[in-house]
Amino acid sequence: MKEINIAEADVAAVANRIENFSSYIRDARVSVDSRSPAIKVIDCILSLRTSYDKIVLPRLKTFGSTHPDIQQITELANLMANYPTSYEFIQQELNFNSERKARILESVVRYVCKIVEETSTVSEEETLKQWAIRSKPQECYSLKIKGFKLAGFQYLRMLFGADTTKPDVHIIRFLSDTLNRKVSAIESLLLLEAASKRVDLSVRAVDSFIWKRGARGQQDSTETNTVRLSPDVAAAFPTEDAVNEALRSILKEKDNG
Fold first, then answer.
1. Fewer CB within 10 Å, N- or C-terminus of the chain?
2. What secondary structure does DSSP assign to the chain, as a single string?
3. Cα distance between residue 25 and residue 45, in whole Å
């Protein structure tokens, strides 16, 4: 992966916008994803460019109810092996008609099984958590799984416990809108990680907030009063408090004048 250098002014601009709704993120309840590794992997693949609430979530619930015994990724692999093809599995068990996603699911399940097989001294959940934390975004390119790109790989890491972001369409749109230019997937990842850490927020929590705004249309009242700062101004006033203090000084001078 080609090395990407992100500009300080861009990080400051993104951090400034995130700061506008930071209180909502800090006040939000932190939910622990206690679902099984099998469900998480299915979630990761089905949700690629698919409506989560309307299509993915109902299928996850149905599969979990139908197969409460399928918890581990190795158990999911064994269930899939009972079908002639992964396409028949995804049709019968998930009511999903996509040969492309069936192929991706088969490849990702095989990949995750290899991770688990390499460590037998700890639980599957802990093994996958440690993998998610240690892994790097660029590793997705070495997998060579057609259709499984950076956003999917990053989402898989997030599902297993990594504090990072998945540069999906909602994240890219948010950052492109913030900077008033097109932002690539890898640049989006680096920008959101750097900006979230600058305002002392979990990257995953920021990702979740932006995703809910984009995918579910959940808006907060702060955005109605947001003014986009030019990069040079944002660099000089990187926080909401700094901007407000500067404006108050101007207002005070105006009143005294």
1. C
2. ----PPPHHHHHHHHHHHHHTHHHHHHS--------HHHHHHHHHHTTTS-IIIIIHHHHHHHHHH-TT--SHHHHHHHHHTSSSHHHHHHHHH----HHHHHHHHHHHHHHHHHHHT--SS-HHHHHHHHHHH--TTHHHHH--TT--HHHHHHHHHHTT-------HHHHHHHHHHHTS---HHHHHHHHHHHHHHTT--HHHHHHHHHHHHHS----GGGGG--PPPHHHHHHS-SHHHHHHHHHHHHHHHHH-
3. 27
Q: Write phi, then psi, for 99 (nearest 5 degrees).
A: -65, -35
- The one-letter code for the residue type at 50 is T
Global pTM value: 0.83
Of 198, 202, 168, 163, the closest CA to residue 183 belongs to: 168
Question: 107-158: per-residue pLDDT in tens?
Answer: 999 999 999 998 877 899 999 999 999 999 999 999 999 999 999 999 999 9
Q: Which two tokens stand for residue 158?
A: 């997030």
Whether the CB-CB separation of 80 and 109 falls below 8 Å is answered with: yes
One-letter identity of residue 36:
S
